[in-house]
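Before the break, one more example. Copy the sequence into your notebook; we will annotate it together after we see the structure.
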Amino acid sequence: MANIQKGQQEGDNSSIDTDLMEDFFYDFKEAHQNCESILINLEHDPSNKELLNSLFRSVHTIKGNLVYVGLKDLTPLIQSMEDLLDAIRSEQILYDSLLSDVILLAMDKTKQMVQAKLAKNASVIIPDDQLLQLCQNISSIVEVEDQTRTEYIRNAIIALDPSTHIFDDAVQPPSLQKSPPVTTQQPLSVIEVLEQHHIEIDEDIIFFESIASPTENRSLYWKGRAARLLTLALEMNKKAGNPVEPAQLVAAVLLHDIGMAFLPLSLLHKAGSFNEEERNSLFRHTELASNLLSQSSKWEQAATIVIQHHERVDGSGYPKRLTGVDICHGAKILSIVDTFDARTHERAYNTRLKRPFIRAVIEVNNCKGSQFDARWVEVFNEITRASHGRK
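Here is what the structure looks like once it is written out:
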């Protein structure tokens, strides 16, 4: 932070000027993004000391810069993260993806507080008592015994992001598994989403919706999925100037996973890895919907979207290992929204955890250029930032 080095003494608010704060926030966002990247890399190499030390330095730098520009009151959450990282670096605690979620969410919460403070938006600034409770939730992770630590980690995650829903580790029969948390806001139906986007609801669309709706009853994890996917897919398409005919995208979204409904529940709800036969059954699910849509020349574009939505831009997808240039825009959109929804809601064959929104966004970005088209990831980022107030 070169310009800050010119400036003020610690805690001296009177000399803070606009240029200085703009430089601070630019550097803060850069350090924040660096932390996010390191955390994702640690997922693949959790014992990497160099990555852990780099993460600690970035977090420590953020704390120091907050103090330096007079935002010391925002540092307690950063300090609790430092304490947690110290315990991880000293191997008092073993790093895992749940701890990564704690740090990701704490970083995002800090960013929200900084933005609110700089914008002087008191309505979204966390009260001191709530901030103290968040810090205590994180600190308790270090203090408790190993056998109870997972419970405290989960409590910290839910405190940082109340929308997060975590299942018990034990794999339970579907009839005994917990339902998603009840929200007071009624989600939109498929028809309401289509009306919002001024999509003509013809007889074909009504028929496709009539198939999609009962399909969601096949598994408790699919409830409301079609409407969620449609909302994000149509918003991305609109943001990019509607390169995909909206009705074709609607048909593809409504029917793309119809083949999954014909798989046995034992396979849909399987928590472990799949054998080759099971994997092949899953891979074939795109064919049924594509063949169905291909029966009418009107829906050929939708059929192409469906058959290609598991292709990857680096050529490692299925069924034809197409590369980016050969994959249609609709399939690129559907690939992103399908994966994002699977990470933010309970995937049918992963019964344990709904991950935080911020992690899902980062993971989509982490696959830019390999699984997902870079241009469409940027469109996705614009939509999710606007819908969740992230800048």
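DSSP finds 18 helices and no strands in the chain. The chain has two domains: 2-160, 185-388. Try to locate both features in your own notes.
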